[in-house]
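Q: What residues go here?
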């Protein structure tokens, strides 16, 4: 393992040093070639061909260069080394010494970091002038070496070093020097910055290909008649910077802990694409194609969020617990007037089992706690987070070109209004719960909660005469109310052990406010008074079984101006106008599960282990109207179920009449909706741990043989052949993480059986 780490370290160092190597290599190419490489006319080469030292000869002739080079090198390396050493030693003292003055100095360092560097220039100059050090090298090192940033940052990182490890090392005879050099120094190095940079480049070259279809040699183009080239590149920079300060204070059973911190996250993205077709030469370079067949595009967006947070924890003799939080976030995505959001939260608990009057029954009730919490959170990811909505508070301009009078003109147009008053979406949550434990074997946890999200961004209706798309507005409000109960039991009788963990939860989702507006995508609908993603369709009254019923529908309530027959679906007249059309659609179901449950069972006897995990949903609706159920509509394959279709000859058939001449049975309706409730054996594992006496004889610590199976069976009334465990909600807006309602890409989950052997040496 040591050699693997060394190899990885060497490879990482090689990757990091590669840009420096390339820079040094380019110094050995001829001056003219270097100029061509810098302009992009020639590619960057790993090895200089031809090799030339002409640039070095020209540079070495200038004595000022070498003086400047050595001055920069000495100052950069020296200042970094001195600052790391000073910051490491100072941070260790402020972090691990218990003296109160260390806390005061750490707070002073925090205040010094708030001071702009420009404010220190005049005091440093006056001190240097008074001590005749204006031209002394120490003047360059001192401001960097004793900067508060390094010491503060190192202190916060070393606070995480366990004091128990320090005591252990001292007991083993380790000195302070060894502790600093071999333990704390390697531990402290990774804790400074966390930036991340990604880049992607794509080169897509398509050439026309000919194939010969017959023996006579007649050729036919099987692709485009011209070559095309698409070059695209993107880069993204993520920056994350954290600062944390902790204060602890204990007195007479009271424990106080205060955490103050700041965080900054930045994101910068840039994309460029170039396209060309009709290439005169067989070169896949973007500048070789015809000028009349080219296109390019690009985009760039960035955002930043600055956060300040604090947490206060109070604990009195493990009986009374209190926690208060305050988070202040500022986002660049909002206008200055609404940029900052304030999100407080508070939680408290009373451990009744720790009270003196409960000690007599401690052997029975070993745990009893009442708790409650209330808090708010903010959301700055606007409108799904797509690039076009990163700044909905500013005007979005569309740029393009038009041709008029044989001339090309560039245009800039305004397509969408902006709303400078957009602010944070906020979520408020209230939770009340109880934790109960008996005999150190039975554990019960119960929670009730209410969660409200307001100021949800929406596009409200506006007059068409304005001629622009509607802007986003803070208008929506959603509430989730639910409860959750968890029961666990564990016990052991000699060699036999048993454990069970059961969970049951319920949630009711309701849209409280959409300013009277509705949002529909396919058969999914958001509407006030109903849950998000409700099923919006016609209400089915079943299949028409008699000719009298068909005649009555055709005469009194025609459906979509179609003539219905025996075997067709009958729909409810919701609006009461004696005619069935799109206006008769209504909310007929919900895709959000009401009841979710799970059951985990574990058995053990000596070295034998058996575990089972059941999970399921008790109340939810699923919808399917694809080629499985409508083969006549979408050209799907007929299944065995379709043989029993209703008609005049078979009026009691299970499926609607199959026809391609009438669309009555193709409309979205509750007929195609079924309960998506299910019970699934998610996982089962049987294993046996071989006796340790056997393993020790062959030099092993332990060996565990097991068989694991997943998704063995599912109990459901959903459409046969399709999986009810589906997160519906995908639509054309770009939500590809869920399944589009009504589609048939929710196939049953794969059954997996695994046989394994775990060996420990």
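A:
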């Amino acid at each position: 393992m040591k050699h693997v780490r060394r190899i990885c370290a060497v490879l990482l160092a090689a990757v990091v040093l590669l840009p420096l190597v390339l820079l040094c290599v380019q110094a050995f190419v001829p001056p003219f070639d270097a100029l061509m490489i810098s302009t992009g006319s020639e590619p960057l080469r790993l090895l200089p061909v031809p090799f030339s030292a002409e640039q070095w000869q020209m540079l070495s002739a200038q004595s000022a260069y070498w003086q400047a080079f050595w001055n920069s090198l000495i100052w950069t390396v020296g200042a970094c080394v001195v600052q790391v050493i000073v910051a490491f030693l100072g941070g260790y003292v402020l972090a691990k010494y218990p003296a109160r003055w260390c806390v005061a100095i750490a707070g002073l360092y925090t205040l010094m970091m708030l001071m702009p560097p420009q404010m220190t220039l005049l005091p440093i100059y006056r001190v240097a002038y008074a001590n005749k050090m204006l031209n002394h090298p120490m003047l360059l090192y001192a401001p960097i070496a004793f900067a508060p940033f390094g010491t503060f940052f190192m202190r916060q990182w070393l606070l995480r070093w366990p004091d128990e490890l320090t005591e252990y090392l001292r007991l083993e005879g380790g000195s302070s020097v060894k502790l600093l050099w071999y333990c704390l120094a390697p531990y402290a190095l990774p804790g400074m910055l966390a930036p991340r940079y990604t880049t992607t480049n794509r080169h897509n070259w398509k050439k026309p290909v000919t194939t010969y279809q017959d023996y006579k040699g007649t050729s036919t183009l099987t692709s485009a008649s011209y070559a095309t080239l698409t070059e695209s590149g993107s880069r993204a920079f993520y920056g994350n910077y954290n600062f944390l300060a902790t204060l602890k204070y204990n007195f007479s059973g009271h424990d106080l802990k205060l955490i103050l911190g700041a965080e900054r996250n930045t994101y910068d993205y840039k994309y460029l694409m170039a396209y060309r077709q009709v290439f005169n030469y067989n070169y896949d370079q973007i500048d070789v194609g015809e000028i009349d067949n080219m296109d390019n595009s690009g985009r760039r967006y960035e955002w930043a969020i600055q956060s300040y947070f604090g947490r206060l924890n109070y604990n009195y003799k493990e009986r009374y617990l209190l926690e208060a939080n305050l988070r202040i976030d500022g986002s660049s995505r909002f206008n200055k007037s609404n940029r900052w959001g304030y999100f407080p939260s508070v939680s408290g608990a009373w451990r009744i089992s720790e009270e003196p009057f409960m000690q007599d029954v401690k052997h029975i009730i070993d745990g009893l706690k009442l708790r409650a919490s209330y808090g708010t959170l903010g959301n700055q990811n606007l409108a799904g987070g797509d690039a076009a909505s990163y700044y909905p508070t500013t005007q979005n301009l569309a740029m393009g070109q038009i041709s008029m009078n044989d001339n090309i003109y560039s245009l800039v147009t305004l397509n969408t209004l902006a709303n400078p008053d957009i602010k944070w979406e906020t979520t408020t949550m209230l939770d009340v719960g109880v934790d109960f434990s008996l005999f150190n074997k039975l554990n019960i946890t119960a929670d009730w909660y209410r969660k409200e999200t307001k100021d949800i961004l929406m596009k409200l209706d506006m007059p068409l005469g304005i001629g622009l798309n509607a802007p986003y507005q803070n208008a929506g409000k959603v509430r989730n109310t639910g409860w959750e109960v968890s029961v666990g039991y564990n016990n052991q009788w000699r060699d036999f052990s048993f454990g069970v963990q059961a969970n049951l939860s319920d949630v009711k989702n309701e849209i409280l406010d959409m300013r009277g507006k509705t949002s529909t995508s396919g058969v999914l609908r958001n509407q006030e008074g109903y849950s998000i993603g409700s099923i919006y369709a016609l209400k089915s009254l079943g299949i028409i079984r008699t000719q009298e019923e068909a005649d009555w529908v055709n005469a009194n309530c025609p459906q979509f101006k179609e003539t219905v027959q025996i075997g067709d679906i009958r729909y409810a007249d919701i609006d009461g106008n004696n005619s069935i059309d799109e206006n008769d659609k209504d909310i007929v179901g919900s895709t959000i599960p009401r009841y979710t449950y799970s059951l985990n069972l574990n058995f053990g006897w000596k070295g034998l282990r058996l575990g089972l995990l059941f999970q399921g949903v008790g109340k939810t609706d699923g919808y399917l109207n694809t080629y499985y159920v409508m083969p006549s509509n979408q050209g799907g394959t007929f299944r065995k179920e379709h043989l029993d279709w209703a008609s005049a000859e078979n009026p009691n058939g299970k499926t609607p009449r199959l026809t391609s001449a009438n669309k009555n049975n193709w409309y979205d309706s509750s007929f195609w909706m079924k309960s998506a409730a299910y019970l699934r054996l998610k996982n089962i594992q049987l294993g046996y741990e071989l006796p340790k006496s056997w393993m020790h004889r062959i030099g092993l610590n332990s060996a565990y043989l097991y068989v694991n199976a997943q998704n063995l069976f599912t109990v459901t009334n959903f459409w046969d052949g399709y999986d009810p465990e589906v997160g519906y909600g995908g639509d054309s807006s770009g939500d590809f993480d869920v399944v589009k309602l009504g589609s048939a890409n929710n196939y049953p989950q794969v059954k997996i059986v695994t046989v394994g052997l775990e060996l420990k040496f």
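A: Context that may help when evaluating the design: The longest helix spans residues 63-96. The CA atoms of residues 405 and 411 lie 15 Å apart.
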